[in-house]
Design goal:
By secondary structure, the chain is of the alpha+beta class. The chain has 13 helices and eleven strands.
């Protein structure tokens, strides 16, 4: 066959190269040395790999470890506290400043009544130990605010399939449309491991009234697994090794002394019953049988590498959460100023990413529903969908406040930052802070109290005069 009137070129013969000359990946080869290591690797989809049975096992083991391992408990709780802190604060960016302050005040009051910060911390802990968190947006008539919207947290175990709604479009309790968007959630009326008599009865919650938060590690993954999954075997090693060290030390400490002899068997030493015990009293003088000596057991535990082992394994455990060792262990004795700041850079960036994720997945959807209900309750004409706003979180405390204050002063003087950005670093609203500063200065002026800022400027000018006098004297 000819193409555009041209005679096709004859196909070139394919060279047959020996197998050993073909390029290949070492990690793709199965040998007798690595066969056992890769024996558990399987070719499964994200949902098949983390099916309901697997996730149930991971959740129960992660919860057990967090409940019984002090390090696991501290790591999960510290991560939630550092991420959420005292809770996010809303700043409206509408043109009407009075309306901005009204919305911010009412939202802050509503957030306090429903304990928004505490629920966000629980959500963060659930993501870490359960893999995912669910929250139902429902009406709570007992709220005394003008908005009765509330956030009801439910455990991941309650969102699951039953015989009535299991079909090809459902993934363990979540029904999706043809585009992959969640449509509804099947929620059991009670926890399957509880004592309630609801059995397998369930209700259907529309997707618009449900918040589902989890870390999607793979495309087409619809349910989450615990974030500490990869660290669960390490937590087990840590506890087992600690218990083994304590048991060995206790066994050695149980013996006050041991009788031994250097004489050969059937030698000149007196006959002593093997494994016999002697009751000892304090400040007593004891004689040994002829040819026998008494010695204390030399305890070998804990060995000098015990602390190093715990350090390395905790460092590996915390790595899956981008957490530095000193925060995971609650111990910074081996850190200096430079290493402390360097290790915290990755952790702080991870917190920023996590906060942005929570804003998009939780806060913005909740605020949209709150805003629509608030506008109806107050009769305010406002576009709930077009409300420009930002969220402020708690700032990270600096290791050296004096150095940070100096750097902040230089940034402001060189116009490389703004007051809004600097206050945002501390988790504060710059407009609120400036109004407070103006109020304080006004009151100080009325009471006749010297303004520190004015005194500072005056001292600077005096220092300049003194420098000039000194320069003149030098000349």
């Amino acid at each position: 066959m000819r193409l555009f009137g041209k005679k096709p070129k004859p196909a070139k013969a394919r060279l047959s190269l020996p197998r050993w000359m073909l390029a290949r990946f070492d990690a793709a080869q199965t040998t007798k040395d690595n066969a056992r290591h890769w024996s558990a690797a399987e070719f499964l989809s994200a949902d098949a790999e983390a099916d309901s049975n697997v996730r149930k096992i991971l959740r129960t083991r992660a919860r057990y470890e967090v409940q019984n391992n002090s390090y696991a408990r501290g790591i999960v709780k510290t991560l939630a506290d550092d991420t959420v802190g005292t809770g996010p604060r809303l700043q409206m960016l509408l043109e009407d400043e009075a309306k901005n302050r009204l919305v911010e005040h009412d939202f802050a009051e509503w957030a306090k009544r429903i304990r928004l910060a505490a629920k966000l911390r629980t959500i963060r802990m659930a993501r870490c130990q359960d893999g995912e968190a669910f929250a139902v947006l429902a009406q709570n008539p007992r709220l005394s605010t003008n908005v009765t919207l509330d956030i009801q947290l439910i455990e991941a175990d309650r969102v699951t399939d039953d015989e009535m709604n299991a079909d090809g479009r459902s993934v363990d309790g979540i029904t999706f449309d043809s585009f992959g968007n969640p449509v509804s959630y099947n929620v059991l009326k009670a926890h399957p491991g509880g004592t309630a008599s609801f059995g397998t009865d369930s209700v259907t919650v529309k997707a618009e009234n449900m918040i589902h938060v989890f870390r999607q590690d793979r495309p087409e993954q619809h349910r989450g697994i615990p974030e500490i999954t990869s660290a669960l075997p390490l937590f087990a090693h840590l506890r087992r090794f600690t218990l083994a060290v304590v048991s060995a030390a206790e066994a050695a400490a149980d013996f006050a002394g041991v009788l031994y002899t250097d004489a050969p068997p059937n030698g000149e030493a007196d006959a002593v019953e093997a494994m016999d015990t002697i009751q000892l009293e304090r400040n007593m003088l004891l004689t040994m049988p002829g040819g026998w000596k008494m010695s204390q057991v030399d305890p070998k535990q804990p060995v000098t590498t015990y602390g190093e082992f715990k350090h390395e394994i905790l460092n590996e455990i915390a790595r899956c959460l981008s957490m530095p060792y000193n925060i995971a262990a609650g111990n910074s004795s081996g850190y200096n100023y430079a290493s402390g700041r360097l290790d915290h850079q990755t952790y702080y960036k991870s917190l920023k990413v996590d906060r942005a994720f929570m804003e998009a997945e939780i806060l913005d959807p909740v605020f949209g529903k709150w805003m629509r209900e608030w506008a109806l309750a107050t009769g305010t004409d406002i576009d709930a969908c077009g409300c420009r706003h930002v969220w402020f979180w708690d700032g990270q405390e600096h290791v050296d406040p004096a150095k940070e204050a100096t750097a902040q002063e230089k940034r402001l003087a060189s116009k490389t930052t703004t007051l809004a950005a600097e206050y945002a670093r501390q988790g504060k609203d710059w407009e609120t802070e400036l109004r407070q500063i103006a109020k304080e200065r006004k009151l100080m002026k009325e009471l006749g109290i010297a303004d520190d800022e004015a005194g500072k400027n005056g001292s600077k000018s005096n220092e300049g005069d003194e420098d000039g006098k000194e320069d003149g004297n030098d000349e």
